[in-house]
Amino acid sequence: MDQLSSEELYWEYLGKQRMWGENIHHVFGHTLRMILCNMSNYSKIPKFHLYSCHDSTLMLLLYALGCFDGCWPPFAADLILELYIDEEARSTHDEDMTHSGSQNSYLLNHYLTPALDALWFRVLYLGKTVPLGCLWKIPYDNGDRYNAGFVPLHFLYDRWRPSAPALEEVEVA
Fold first, then answer.
1. Cα–Cα distance between 70 and 15 in angstroms, integer?
2. What SUPFAM superfamilies does the database record attribute to this sequence (predicted)?
3. How far is the C-alpha of 124 from the C-alpha of 113, rounded, in Å?
4. 3-class SS of residue 3
5. At 124, is the secondary structure helix, strand, or coil?
6. Which of 2-11, 133-142, 148-157 has the highest mean pLDDT?
7. Domain hosting residue 127, numbered range
8. How many folded domains does the chain comprise?
């Protein structure tokens, strides 16, 4: 019954099933963009965000993450997105920036991309780590991190590209 109810809700919000992937950005794009901007601007915003939402909103977010199991979320379900900084990658990036500067769009993109590589995130749903690396079929550069559920933030940008802000619009510390 939960699965039928959740599928009916998706039909209402997103249309025919073959169109769900395309329509999620039209229906839920503002929320996806807010999440990406908050994660990218981690140094300028509070360290902790708490949002409350209806279960139907949670289902759309799970679908956008590619980890919706087809069942209606249980009462008091929680979804946690954790952001981590790879200090080693960040320090390498900072050293590169002292030699280049950001005079034009190319250099700005060069500046932002490594900063996104220094950011990793993981998702916990109902208290359990969601294996996004496996679900998204991401090649393993760091097996220990992927096994613990960590994924580089730029993969989330790639996944949510239609809703994501242009990299030039995001200020990354």
1. 16
2. Phosphoglycerate mutase-like
3. 25
4. helix
5. strand
6. 148-157
7. 2-169
8. 1
What is the rounded distance in angstroms from the CA atom of residue 133 to the CA atom of residue 136? Answer: 5
Question: Does the pLDDT of residue 94 top 80, yes or no?
Answer: no
Distance CA 100, CA 107 (A): 8
Task: State the chain's maximal CA–CA distance in angstroms.
Answer: 60
Q: Which of 86, 84, 109, 87 is nearest to 97 (CA)?
A: 109
Residue 156 burial by Cβ neighbours in a 10 Å radius (0-12, 13-18, 19+): buried
- Quote the CA–CA distance of 153 and 16 in Å, as a whole number: 30
**pLDDT, tens digit, for every residue of 24-38?**
877 888 888 888 888
Is the per-residue pLDDT at 101 higher than 60? Answer: no
CA distance 142 to 161: 24
